[in-house]
Amino acid sequence: MDWLMDLLVIRGKLLGIEWHFWKIVGWLGNLTFTSRFLVQWYATERRKQVIVPAAFWWLSLAGAFLLFCYALFYQRDSVFIFAYAFTWIPYIRNLIIHKRHLAAHHDCPGCHWPCPPPSRYCSQCGGRLPDH
Ligand SMILES: [Zn+2]
């Protein structure tokens, strides 16, 4: 395990970083914000089409909030503050649209699969959906 400590501890500091409360907030923001790409990439590869899951917008919102707090209360840098000050608007708008789209789904009477609004036939069992 000494090799691991040699790799992680640089000049007496974990990853060479001076750790304190705001560094933890900033790095949590970075990890949260970056993880959204992995979530989106995984969803896209799984369906073999571009998919942006709701988790992407939640991770964007949480990561941007943490980075905004870091920028505002610790860095106090106008460029950094401005970069994250308004990103919540499209994130929340996309979450609202996502929620409305899910609410507009109709369950298939045959297999109970939730079918998206314009569908006339169930994508799971092929059964005809009732007119709405
Ligand atoms: Zn069905």
Could you describe the 3D structure shown?
It is a single chain. With 132 residues, the protein is mostly helical. It has a domain at 2-85. The protein has five helices and four strands; from the N terminus they run αββααααββ. It has helices at 2-8, 21-47, 54-75, 78-85, 88-103; strands spanning 9-10, 13-14, 106-107, 114-115. A two-stranded antiparallel sheet has the order 1-2. It has a two-stranded antiparallel sheet with strand order 3-4. Strand 1 (9-10) and strand 2 (13-14) form a beta hairpin. Helix 2 (21-47) runs antiparallel to helix 3, helix 3 runs antiparallel to helix 4 and helix 3 (54-75) runs antiparallel to helix 5 (88-103). It is elongated. The chain starts with a helix and ends in a 17-residue tail after the last strand. The model has no long low-confidence stretch (mean pLDDT 94). The structure holds zinc ion.
Brief descriptors of the model:
132 residues, two-stranded antiparallel ribbon, 5 helices, 4 strands, 61% helix, binds zinc ion
What's the helix count? Answer: 5
Strand order of the largest sheet: 1-2
Q: How much of the polypeptide forms β-strand, as a percent range?
A: 5-15%
CA-CA gap between termini: 63 Å
Shape descriptor reads elongated
Order of helices and strands: HEEHHHHEE
Describe what is shown at a glance:
By secondary structure, the chain is mainly alpha-helical. It has helices spanning 2-8, 21-47, 54-75, 78-85, 88-103; strands spanning 9-10, 13-14, 106-107, 114-115. It has a two-stranded antiparallel sheet with strand order 1-2. The chain has a two-stranded antiparallel ribbon with strand order 3-4.
